[in-house]
């Protein structure tokens, strides 16, 4: 008997709970129309908001950098893994986010964990988090030494109660962390109210703009710009793997924050740096975002169309305000079946179940991009209607 046989029981348990994941395989470019598991489908699952994964300027930048600098750095940033390209990208990201400085880290996930772990270093600290924050924020809190306080999703009354509680008021250091756009529901954080409360209670504010960088605000600068809160949010987290179409994350804030994290952030200190081709891709992506505003305009035109049509068809999209558009199903088994049936109809929309979302909140998550054509979205809605009627979810 193998010592690893217990995994068979664990896997069977996952299958019984409809939580066992079988990986889909992408056999083409990450594009609005993609080949997945051998089938050509309308892709409603990628975070490729501005369709930059296939943009000619971005692809050329990656190829040119590879030829000039080689395929990798073979080192962490603090040894010899920081190139001139890294410095240029950080300077330009700080300009983009309108902060003093920025630090590029290996992923959006590790950017969140790095900040929480690096700043919340004592049991006398308090980390305050929205209950629907991304898993990386939750894990960052676990890695920190701070006391954790969780407020009900976007409930400002509950947040006020926490901030005014004796335990929090006497803390050495307080930091509130929120997603800018919540990745499962597509709703936007109540940032103006959060800022007002945190300023009143001397609390650091950290916003994870993973799903709003390149999507919300002037030129896609994120939620801080969207709400005109420049200079009032201490830390902005961004990702390079969604609207930018590549990989990586960054922390934007004051120069002291960047300098401190270079010496203390464990993901930054102990992970190899991005290849030059990736950094060059991000720089080119920034150029496209600045110089082709029509991409952002098309993203929102497509988003408005899809939301209106899917609601008109009779589906519930919950509180979505962004290109992330959930279609609520409310049952894990039905959500999985719905996703599978849509795939047969040529539409890929991923089912999301417990524990990613609460039981009873199972859904299909759709992400609309600038690359979709209206005809693609019309076909997708038609497939939703057909499958919804066949499954008895629509009359």
Automatic annotation (TrEMBL):
One annotated GO molecular function: glycine C-acetyltransferase activity
InterPro entries: Aminotrans_II_pyridoxalP_BS, Aminotransferase_I/II_large, AON_synthase_class-II, AONS_Archaea/Firmicutes, PyrdxlP-dep_Trfase, PyrdxlP-dep_Trfase_major, PyrdxlP-dep_Trfase_small
Cofactor annotation: pyridoxal 5'-phosphate
Domain of life: Bacteria
Domain Aminotransferase class I/classII large: 39-382
Assigned keywords, A-Z: Acyltransferase, Coiled coil, Ligase, Pyridoxal phosphate, Transferase
Family stated for the protein in its record: Belongs to the class-II pyridoxal-phosphate-dependent aminotransferase family.
Record-given protein name: Putative 2-amino-3-ketobutyrate CoA ligase
């Amino acid at each position: 008997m193998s010592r690893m046989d217990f995994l068979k029981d664990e896997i069977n348990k996952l299958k019984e709970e409809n939580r066992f994941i079988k990986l889909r395989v992408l056999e083409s470019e990450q594009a609005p129309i993609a080949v997945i598991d051998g089938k050509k489908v309308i892709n409603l699952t990628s975070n490729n908001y501005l369709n930059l994964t296939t943009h000619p300027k971005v692809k050329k930048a990656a190829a040119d950098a590879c030829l000039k600098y080689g395929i990798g750095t073979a080192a962490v940033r603090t040894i010899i893994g920081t190139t001139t390209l890294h410095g240029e990208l950080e300077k330009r990201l700080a300009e983009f986010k309108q902060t003093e400085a920025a630090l590029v880290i290996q992923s959006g996930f590790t950017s969140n964990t790095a900040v929480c772990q690096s700043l919340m270093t004592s049991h006398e600290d308090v980390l305050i988090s929205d209950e629907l924050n991304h898993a990386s924020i939750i894990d960052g809190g676990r890695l920190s030494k701070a006391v954790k306080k969780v407020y009900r999703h976007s409930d400002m009354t509950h947040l006020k109660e926490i901030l005014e509680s004796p335990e929090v008021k006497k803390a050495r250091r307080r930091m509130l962390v929120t997603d800018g756009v919540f990745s499962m529901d597509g709703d936007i954080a109540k940032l103006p109210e959060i800022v007002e409360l945190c300023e009143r209670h001397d609390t650091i504010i950290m916003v994870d703009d993973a799903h709003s960088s390149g999507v919300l605000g002037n030129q896609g600068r994120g939620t801080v710009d969207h709400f005109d809160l420049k200079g009032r949010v201490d830390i902005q987290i961004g990702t390079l793997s969604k609207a930018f179409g590549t990989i990586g994350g960054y922390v934007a804030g004051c120069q002291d924050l960047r300098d401190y994290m270079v010496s203390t952030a464990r993901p930054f200190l102990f992970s190899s740096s991005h290849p030059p081709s990736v950094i060059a891709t991000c720089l080119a992506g920034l150029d496209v975002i600045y110089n082709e505003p029509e991409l952002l305009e098309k993203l929102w035109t497509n988003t408005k169309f899809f939301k209106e049509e899917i609601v008109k068809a009779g589906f519930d999209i919950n509180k979505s305000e962004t290109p992330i558009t959930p279609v609520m199903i409310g049952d894990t088994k039905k959500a999985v079946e719905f996703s599978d049936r849509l795939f047969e109809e040529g539409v890929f929309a991923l089912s999301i179940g417990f524990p990613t979302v609460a039981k009873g909140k199972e859904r299909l998550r759709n992400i609309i991009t600038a690359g979709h054509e209206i005809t693609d979205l019309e076909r997708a809605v038609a497939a939703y209607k057909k499958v919804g009627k066949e499954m008895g979810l629509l009359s």
